[in-house]
Amino acid sequence: MADKQQILTMSDISKSFPGVKALSNVNFRLLKGEVHALMGENGAGKSTLIKVLTGVHDFDNGKILFDGKIIKPESPLDAQKMGISTVYQEVNLCPNLSVSENIFIGRQPMKNGFINWNEMNKQSETILDKLNIKIDVTQLLSTYSVAIQQMVSIARSLLISAKILILDEPTSSLDESEVNQLFSVINNLKSEGLAILFITHFLDQVYQIADRITVLKNGELVGEYKTNELPKVELVAKMIGKELAKFSKIPKSTEKRKKSNNENVLLKVNNLWRKSILKPVTLEVNTGEVLGFAGLLGSGRTESVRLIFGIDKHQQGEVLIKGKKINLDTPKNAVSSGMAFCPEDRKSEGLLSELTVRENIILALQGKYGLLKFINKKKQDEIANEYIKILNINTPSTSQKVKNLSGGNQQKIILARWLATNPQVLLLDEPTRGIDVGAKAEILKFILSLCNKGIGIVFISSELDEVINCSNRILVLRDGEKISELTGDDIDENLIMHTIAGGQK
Amino acid sequence: MSNLKIKDYFKKFFTLSIFGSSPILWPLFFLILVLIFNLLFNKTFFHIEIKDGHLYGSMIDILNRATPLMLVSLGMTLVIASTGIDISVGAIVAISGAIAAKLIGGTLVLKGGVQEYVTLVPMPVAIITAILISTILGLWNGMLVSRVGIQPIVATLILMVAGRGIAQLITSGQIITIYYKHYFFIGNGFLLMLPFTLFIVSIVLIISLILTRKTAIGLFIESVGTNARATKYSGINSQNVILLIYAFSGFCCGIAGLIVSSNVKSADGNNAGLLLELDAILAVAIGGTSMAGGRFFFLGSIIGALLIQSLTTSIYAIGVPPEVTLVVKAIVVFILCLIQSETFRKKIFGKRLQGAH
């Protein structure tokens, strides 16, 4: 389909980070005057692809053809000069400067060596006019809503005469009317021939605005589709669906599914909720059971475990462990009542990357013991070595800094940190994210072996296959709400995907 | 140590890569440089004699004078390791001195034909009160940082500014002179031929080392400094850890304030400990504790403080006019920081020096 309108062709792009292949031979095409949605779950490679395109990351091989020329952006500024502009989720403008200053920052119109304010304000108004925005451009940016700020960001990109506009999760902090306003602007720009790359995790919005969809998964291209030819369910299937028997090594836990029915309840959550984050959720985890959470990013899967663990404040509801109500003020309380939590974002929420393997493993246990009951170095090493052996962690010694280890080994270290505390309930948020296939299988097997020891597990993954294979019961979430709960033989991939996509067949 | 190992060390030393392995070696190296400089240009520097059973000399003097800075640097080390900063230390030093001076006061009275020193309140009470209030002021800083969530530099700025006022309030805007001989022992006394202040610093250092290496607080501080969020999610009350750190800094300042006021036999709310915070931050930075938080090195900070003091003394000793001493000091410190910077070393010396990593 050699289209003469094609403005961007990325072919065979590969990019590796230590221990993980973030992109492998990905092809991506963008046409003039289209809105193209880039879809995929955590670790799919969306952001890596964007970062390669905008010059944040170098790429290992492949080539980028932009506007008829082969390019290799060295930095975001470089990419911007070529005509590739990005508007990020978090508006990165200067709130304490005026709107027009924000639009023109770094390229103010000059007159006799001074800034020509009149000209600048006039031009700002013209540009914003094109976006159907009528505001006082001399006011501080911070006086306007996030939606307007986002438009200003877009206006700024237009000024640089962008040919490609990348919108990275632009709608996540907007309300519905603001989203509509943004979409009408997008449609205007589209009709002027701008190529727009749209990244979001809201399925409905994709179907509202996008012409075509490219789906990535685990750093590989799944496919490129026309939006009107791809039903929602199939999109969900492409994003989280089966990954060709790669995990066939993992034993199906059907046997345990029957057993778990009459076990005693370990974790019970009653109507836990927080405004605009999570609608009331009730759930139970029995001893030796895996409760899987199925749902997309932003569906409430991460949000609910964060509320359960006391990281985010809940508004109402309660959490009980073995029938005893626990205080949800801080994670410390959750830990002391036997809970453990492996966060989704390993690097910023889990690891102490500058510290050693030993310190990383010992941290939670020492926290549980408190200040004075000090675990001496020798004992620390013993504990660390024990878990290095159990989890098969590949490290030269216990005094290696964890930042030097691969993603899989880092994840195992966080698991080790929690296992050392001898938890009753383990909350695992994407424990297999961004790690290589071998380590993935190892971790999944290990999770199942923990169940046999009577630990109750909440398991979240962007791979529906993993969730289905590992879980005794599955909770399906969509838009911050628990939609259904499936047990035993009811667990069905198709049904789950339909539920996630919004109930339509 | 085997022969091979020594050879290895020499090799490492000459490629400068050994400094990557232990951060204490850098400041030590510079301290030795300053000493060598003095050996060449300042003949009296190493001259030590025994007078009245005490050791006298430039070096002893430097050690003694560096003690307030050493103490303050110990507290600052932990604060910086937690990614914080405490710029109120100078003010707390002044407050501590002012409290002690006010409480002791002291007069020389004639009792039955014998001259005798009399205090307003017993000296131990005055000392304990001064240290206690300093610690409470540290707690106040810690509260603002950990509970109220104010950025450390702003939170401690409050006390930095207000503290001077408090100190002057205590001294009623005057310089209070202390007339109580026993109090002078703290800053000027000798024990086992050495300045008494050295024993104070040693004791505080040993206590700090024991507390941080033999209880879990050291791990918690380094963990909070490396990744505060991950630490909280691991079930550690990082707020209390931070509270403790600032309280400890206040405690150290309290003792330093006693030494300073005892040394000059007076309390000056306006000038005691002036700009001490900057020297302390510098000492910590030279000592190898990263301003980005994480690992901390008490010994490094102590050596850093010593280095700053010997630098100051050396500059005076070789006859640099007083109006340019600060410039000379700044240049030396600048060069020192440049060499310590890994990025700079790589740029200048190229790849062959990257060894240790």
Describe the structure.
The complex is a heterodimer of chains A (505) and B (357). Chain A is an alpha/beta fold and 505 residues long. Chain A contains 18 helices and 22 strands. Chain A has a 6-stranded mixed sheet with strand order 6-9-10-3-11-12, sandwiched between helices. In chain A, a hairpin with a 2-residue loop joins strand 16 and strand 17. In chain A, helix 8 (232-240) packs across helix 18 (493-501), helix 13 packs across helix 14 (377-390) and helix 13 packs parallel to helix 15 (407-419). Chain A is globular and about 75 Å long. The two termini of chain A are 31 Å apart. The model of chain A is unreliable at 243-262 (pLDDT under 50). With 357 residues, chain B is mainly α. Chain B has a single domain (65-341), classed as ABC transporter involved in vitamin B12 uptake, BtuC (Orthogonal Bundle), CATH 1.10.3470. Chain B is built from 16 helices and 8 strands. In chain B, the strands form 4 sheets. In chain B, strands 1-2 form a two-stranded antiparallel ribbon. Chain B has a two-stranded antiparallel ribbon with strand order 3-4. Chain B has a two-stranded antiparallel sheet with strand order 5-8. In chain B, strand 6 (190-191) and strand 7 (194-195) form a beta hairpin. The longest helix of chain B is centred in the C-terminal third of the chain and has 27 residues, at 238-264. The radius of gyration of chain B is 22 Å and the shape is globular. Residues 14-18 and 352-357 of chain B have low confidence and may be disordered. Classes of the chains: A alpha/beta (505), B mainly alpha (357). The interface between A and B is medium-sized, with 34 and 21 residues.
Q: For the CA atoms, what is the radius of gyration of chain B?
A: 22 Å
Sheet/helix structural class of chain A: alpha/beta
Structural class of chain B: mainly alpha
Kindly estimate the percentage of residues of chain A that lie in beta strands according to DSSP. 25-35%
Shape of chain B: globular
Low-confidence stretches of chain A: 243-262
Distance between the termini of chain B: 23 Å
Give average pLDDT of chain B, whole number: 84
Describe the biggest sheet of chain A? 6 strands, mixed
What is the number of beta strands of chain A?
22
Number of domains of chain B: 1
Q: Can you give the helix content of chain B as a percent range?
A: 55-70%
CATH topology of chain B: ABC transporter involved in vitamin B12 uptake, BtuC
If you average the pLDDT of chain A, what whole number results?
A: 83
Strand order of the largest sheet of chain B: 1-2
Helix content percent band of chain A:
25-40%
| Sheet of most strands of chain B | 2 strands, antiparallel
CATH top level class name of chain B:
Mainly Alpha
